[in-house]
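Memo to structure team: turn this sequence into structure tokens by end of day. - J.P.
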Amino acid sequence: MDSSVERSTEGQFDRRPLLVFWEMTKACQLACFHCRADAQLIGGPDELSTREGVELIDSIAALGRPRPILILTGGDCLMREDIVELATYAHSLNVPVAIAPSVTEKLTSSTLQALRRAGVKSASLSLDGANASTHDAVRGVTGHFDATLRAIVELKRHGFTTQINTTVMASNVRELADVAQLLQQLKVNVWEVFFLITTGRGAEVEATSATVNEEVCHFLVNASRYGFTVRTVEAPFFRRVALERRDQSPGGDPSGVGETYEFLRSRLLQLLGPSSAPVRAPSAATRDGKGIIFVGANGDIYPSGFLPIALGNVRNDNLIDVYRDHDLLHSIRGADFVGPCQSCEQSDLCGGSRSRAYATYENPLASDPGCVLVSGSSH
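Reply from structure team:
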């Protein structure tokens, strides 16, 4: 969630994750049509208790330095009344904490102040369009776009490192340059762009094609020159694209790109003008189960929030032992894939989205159909 995620050195992902996501609850007051968690108005009776949350934090702290970043998410993590207590406990053990709340009336100035006192430095919010009609349609709440912009300002006012998450879908892809302009105006620190996985309620949403994904990645390299760091979720091929573009002059453009890139490139230049700043795109070679682990609301352990294969449960299993020892995670980290992802020279740097492979083929080791190098090949 912040620049500290770059501190990892090669080989550490076999022994410790970089990011631990804890879905504190499935409760959320929103009804987003692409929700991974399939969130509901109230949390389930099987959610981890405060004591079990403390034990989870203890297991992370036992790793020693550098400890993974614990990201408190949901649903809406602010629906948990013990969030400040748990964040404070994590801080006391030097476990860095970030939050990923929803924008509702729960996101108050007093809560943000309490979380900052508890040692939380980073927060992420979702913005899925450049205007109210697009964003509000995704979030299912009229006026939510304006509330989100106010919330970003409030996070900055309280001194949070602020990350904005945007999910790329066929319905909003042409608004990405306008979103980038908003983020620059709001002085956002990180833009994390999610490439849709058809799971949860997102199973009914139209994803972008592999060709469009590639063009969006090239656009994101351009966007990362405008004052914020750009990262992707479920698009590890962005790291390949950024590597290909690394030595290119600031004004240079990739060859062979199509209409989506040309539109977004032109729109970005129209809105923000040219930039000679360096690309800000991190290169840590993480993917589902490699540097990333996810704990569901009921304690189930998953390679990521988008890959619904339960590997164990923190009520019975030590999270770090599962991360280190599970056969599937060994295969993921060893790039033991099927098809083009296995033979790709960037299988370690990228390795494809294991979640998208599973959603498409019910095989988490299949090749990622969202990558243009895979699309059209045998899997």
